[in-house]
Design a protein that fits this description.
The protein has 408 residues and is α+β, with helices and mostly antiparallel strands. It has helices at residues 3-18, 37-51, 57-74, 127-134, 180-206, 223-229, 235-238, 251-270, 272-286, 296-305, 362-372, 385-394; strands at 26-31, 85-92, 101-107, 117-121, 138-144, 148-155, 158-166, 212-219, 241-246, 292-294, 308-314, 320-326, 332-337, 354-361, 376-380, 397-401. The chain has three domains: 3-133, eRF1 domain 1 (Translation, Eukaryotic Peptide Chain Release Factor Subunit 1, Chain A, 2-Layer Sandwich); 138-268, eRF1 domain 2 (Nucleotidyltransferase, domain 5, 2-Layer Sandwich); 275-401, 60s Ribosomal Protein L30, Chain: A, CATH 3.30.1330.30. The strands form four sheets. The protein has a five-stranded mixed beta sheet, sandwiched between helices. A four-stranded antiparallel beta sheet has the order 3-2-1-4, covered by helices on one side. Strands 10-16-11-15 form a four-stranded mixed beta sheet, with helices on both faces. Helix 2 runs antiparallel to helix 3. The radius of gyration is 28 Å and the shape is flat. It binds zinc ion.
């Protein structure tokens, strides 16, 4: 998923999360990928008839209204979108009782949805979507010794143990009649064969994951080093090895232990790009190269000139960009403000009321501007000290220029 799309979805989920119903009347539906719309409609008709029995009159009306709104929208779909569909609908409680407002949101999830969920509650159930957007990348995990190996995939918080295999290599006791050296050679050969098999499994599992950011290897003994040193993994996977860790177990429990061990490492990797970019910005600023600028106005001007190489935007930026027109003198203008100020916006010329013609997240507007001149956009999270500094000290908007431009 595009970073900007992710951020937009994150904001929407944040809003949905804070909404409440007067009673248990907000409907959440998760439709898994591949489920025919006709099946979904049947289920919803059934829920509709069940909801007719709700005792509280207002709640009943509200749930039925929400369900028919959903059904009407679903009828427009010829089939379920490729990743499934998430629906939130219901009357949102406001400050004044009896003035609840009906809202309906249909969201195509960024990943394949595997479960069906139908909930009527006083809130929307956004957790599954939240988990999905937290996932920025995937990591492959391999735990091995000479007896067994296990493969896992770590995506966000979810860890899946995909496969476990065993070698069948006999223990330390050799069968009678064989010389110790010959026995050792056989064992070495068997281990080599087993590493080859591990490599084949790893290639099959991990090469298919486009968002794979790295591989972490672990195990109780020296086998993991033999495996990493040898040519068992596909070269593109081998390049992605981030670390090798000692863990007490092999097999599935080893995978869990490895995840624990690798936590700090993973955290660093996830934010490596944004740390690099912020540091490059700070470097240029400290050396006074003239290539580091910050603040919305100055950055916007440079973007319009096509002079920006990298645009840095803090995910923390809450402002929106509005395009308005004066209702009296027809003056048209643009302004960056926080959402709450929209209603107080007045015409700068005649102080009359204005009509909002268009509004966007400021981040999105600047990113679009950057795209037009082929500028790289880096969304900087608040998870690193570099990211927090960008927001606190520089207002969350900064740029590294292609060439120096004159100051205004
Ligand atoms: Zn005016």
């Amino acid at each position: 998923m595009d970073e900007l799309e992710r951020l937009k979805l994150e904001r929407l989920i944040g809003e949905l999360k804070s909404k409440r119903g007067r009673g248990t009347e907000l409907v959440t539906i998760y439709i898994p990928a591949g489920r025919p719309i006709a099946d979904v409609l049947n289920t919803l008709w059934y829920e509709y008839s069940t909801a007719s029995n709700i005792k509280d009159r207002t709640t009943r009306h509200h749930v039925l209204d929400a369900l028919s709104a959903i059904i009407n929208r679903l009828k427009l779909f010829r089939k379920t979108p490729p990743n499934g569909l998430v629906i939130f609908a219901g009357y949102i409680a406001g400050d004044v009782p009896g003035r609840e407002k009906m809202e309906i949101h249909l969201i195509e999830p960024p990943e394949r949805l595997k479960i069906w969920l139908y909930r009527c509650d006083s809130r929307f159930h956004t957790e599954i979507l939240e988990d999905m957007i937290r996932i920025r990348e995937a990591y492959g995990l391999i735990v091995l010794d000479r007896n067994e190996a296990a493969f896992g995939i770590l995506k966000g918080k979810s860890l899946e143990v995909v496969e476990e295999i065993t070698s069948g290599i006999p223990g330390k006791h050799r069968a009678g009649g064989q010389s110790a050296r010959r026995f050792e050679r056989i064992i070495e050969q068997l281990a080599h064969e087993f590493y080859k098999r591990i490599g084949e499994y790893a290639n099959k599992i991990f090469l298919e994951i486009p968002e794979l950011k790295g591989i972490i290897v672990g195990g109780p003994g020296p086998s993991k080093y033999e495996f990493v040193k040898g040519d068992y993994l596909h070269y593109t996977l081998k390049e992605k090895i981030l670390g090798v860790f000692d863990v007490g177990y092999s097999g599935e429990s080893g995978i869990y232990e490895l995840t624990e061990r690798a936590k700090d490492l993973l955290k660093d990797v996830q934010y490596i790009r944004e740390k690099e970019v912020v540091n490059e910005f700070l470097y240029n600023l400290a050396r006074d190269t003239g290539l580091a600028i910050y603040g919305e106005e100055e950055v916007r001007r440079a973007l319009e000139m096509g002079a920006v190489r990298i645009l840095l935007l803090s995910e923390n930026l809450k402002k929106i960009r509005v395009f308005f027109q004066c209702k009296m003198c027809q003056y048209e203008g643009r302004k960056s403000i926080i959402e709450d100020q929209v209603n107080d916006l007045k015409c700068p010329k005649c102080k009359s009321e204005v009509e909002i013609i268009d509004k966007k997240m400021l981040i999105e507007e600047l990113a679009n501007l950057a795209e037009m001149s082929g500028t790289e956009v880096v969304l900087v999270s608040n998870e690193t000290s570099e990211g927090r500094e960008l927001y606190k000290t520089f207002g969350g908007i900064a740029a590294i220029l292609r060439y120096r431009i004159s100051r205004t």
